């Protein structure tokens, strides 16, 4: 009986030691595994952000840099599609119907062809990409332009939109008098905020304009869903109405 008890005690002691070793290993390895997982996630997020900002950095540190070739990131366009350039007659701002002719590079659907900046830090809009077209996949990438509105730089109404939980999240912070700038490969176009409105989504009067108006309509509309300052879907829209201040063309 004594020998059996000794054997049992020895076996229990061995199991206890083994359990202790296992517990120590778990205590040591668990934090290391959690740390490795966190580092992996941070690395993936940082790399994704780096890729997104890489293009903007080239423009930010090189005033002569051009926007990325639109065909490189446009599933709607053939990579070998030629640029569409043309002269257009434009009305000179603050003039008595004076017109000039300038070159505009017309975008293909899905092209990123401009950058939008609002000179108000609280608006959170700084060199945001502008795409020609307003499909859901383009809305996920940046600010979109309705293809029934005027080309940037041409005479008419330019209409830009974005989600209120992404690129236009802080649009409600915009103020009357703020300067709004659109830059393209063919020019720089400056506007000034004159008014903001909240309208039901059924009222689309500001999205269209009379092309035969005299004097001609020449302005910019920014709009997004309005949820009383909160993010998400809504049956109301916030509109920011801007008048043109200057147009600077390269050709």
UniProtKB/TrEMBL annotation:
GO terms for molecular function: hydrolase activity. The chain crosses the membrane at residues 24-47. SUPFAM superfamilies: Sortase (SSF63817). InterPro entries: Sortase (IPR005754), Sortase_D_1 (IPR041999), Sortase_dom-sf (IPR023365). The keyword Acetylation does not apply. Keywords: Hydrolase, Membrane, Transmembrane, Transmembrane helix. The active site is at 163 (proton donor/acceptor), 225 (acyl-thioester intermediate). The keyword Transmembrane applies. It holds the Pfam family Sortase. This is Class D sortase. It comes from Ruminococcus bicirculans.
